[in-house]
Amino acid sequence: MRMSKLLMPTLREVPAEAEITSHKLMLRAGLIRKLAAGIYSYLPLGLKFYKKVENIVREEMDRAGAQELLMAALLPAEAYMASGRWEVFGPNMFKLKDRNDRDFCLGPTHEELFTQTMINEVHSYKEYPKTLYQIQTKYRDEARPRFGLMRGREFVMKDAYSFDLDEAGLDKSYKIMYDAYCRIFTRLGLDFTIVDADSGAMGGSGSQEFMVKSPVGEDGIAYCDSCGYAANYEKAECVPERKPSEEGEKPLEKIHTPNAHTIEELVAFMGAEPYNFAKTIIYKADDKYVAVMVRGDREVNEVKLKNLLGCTDDPELAEPAAVREITHAEVGFAGPVGIGIPVYADKEIELMENFIVGANETDMHYKNVRLGRDFTPELFADIRTIETGDKCPHCGGEIKTAQGIEVGHIFKLGTKYSDALGLKYLDENGKSQTVIMGCYGIGVSRCLAAVIEQCNDENGIIFPVSVAPYEAVVIPVNNKQEEQMHLAEEIYDRLKAEGIDALFDDRAERAGVKFKDADLIGVPVRIVVGKKCGEGIVEYKERAGESAVEKTVNDAVADVVKFIKENR
Ligand code: 9G3
């Protein structure tokens, strides 16, 4: 492609709303343009990049024996009625009415549609197992779309669904998808970790997330280098840890703690350690209030709490007015002793003695608190968020933590949708059985952002060859030099003839601008035709490499072809 023709509107500056590197670079390199919050257009370079990513996903899904379909994105409400999900997703679901005032939505996910397709089209157990997939635009009205393609309101997902006769079949289908995902993310050039994950509203017997470690990732990952354990914060198992405390039974003592609302203020005031306190946080779960306790230096994990309480909506912190109503005290003095609502305590509380809690009285706390004597929780459960330095639940090693970008999520669904919609089969004995499902998502457009997040330097994007919009660029240093232009053109033609996705920078720009743009848009390798072209010598430089080397024209062309074909 001649760059004098290419629509590649590079930018020197980007809008302040682009906070993360990949978002900045995708705007600066002219890959995408924002239409509205969470809604983007793909310009030529962005679309070529997208298509290479999409094709790797497609190749590996096909290789794994999955069959590609394409479902509608504009869906009648009935599609989600049987599973009860028409209401469940609330404002996240884009809903609209047609000219006859009928309810429709823009599809956010397609469990129901794929299950209904199987009901309509498959009628014998002999036709199982099947794994069907699509690569399709999804719509979710995210409350806080951000980070460019990382969290959009219109985005591309590869969603696959497996249908098996029994659990053993599901295990096989799941493993096939797991292995296909490993191949996909490897080919995308992503450094990824697979973590145990919470299945949330999806239910089922378990799920795993494919995470790309990045400081801009929205998910927390806990992992152990000794045994390989890795889990999302929402799922990571916490080992309760005993901390030193005063020994022996002491009488419960109410102490005046003026204006000490926070643990820090309390520590300063009382001189005890944060782990000698227990926090009591009041949540509204569905429509009832509960008191949740964790050690003073820990945090409540609200997904674990939601799963423990089995509530439909996410538990929310009680409003200050409600806290005052329940505790008869200002916020910051809630405690378990005599609180009058159910108390759920993290397992670490069970290991504490003579600890400090709010006294449900403004400016007052209790010290020397003892379980059993002073209060008894409904139950003890793992409801805290794991932290660096905690013990690994599998091997006792040291837990490390990182942030991650979730690029894939695979679920063993079980019969949640096949039951809801009635996907059944008659087994060889004529007995009616329910089909066992799995579902498997990849954020295809999110992968674009993840690749750039991991593959960049101060000069711009460093595209892995496998997904590079253009694989090589030929740059004549001086357009006015007929000899340079002629040789550059010849090299460009030879690369194209070898099947290389090549650019020819024939723009009437200074060489420095051409080099900067080649770096910014991440072209994996370049050939520069300059002063020595009369001697048949050109410069060869790999984008990820340190320095340029002089080569004969033939060697440069051969090395570009070799480099690209070895790294595709
Ligand atoms: C909705 C809306 C938002 C949603 C969902 C449905 C997340 C929803 C979970 C999944 C699970 C799997 C198929 C491929 C693999 C992932 N946000 N999820 O179901 F209606 Cl508005 O999407 N879906």
UniProtKB/TrEMBL annotation:
EC number in record? 6.1.1.15
EC category? ligase
Q: Which SUPFAM superfamilies match?
A: Class II aaRS ABD-related (SSF52954), Class II aaRS and biotin synthetases (SSF55681), YbaK/ProRS associated domain (SSF55826)
Tell me the GO BP annotations in alphabetical order.
Answer: prolyl-tRNA aminoacylation
Residue span(s) of domain Aminoacyl-transfer RNA synthetases class-II family profile: 38-464
**Similarity-based family:** Belongs to the class-II aminoacyl-tRNA synthetase family. ProS type 1 subfamily.
Q: How does it assemble?
A: Homodimer.
Q: Please report the name of this protein according to its UniProt entry.
A: Proline--tRNA ligase
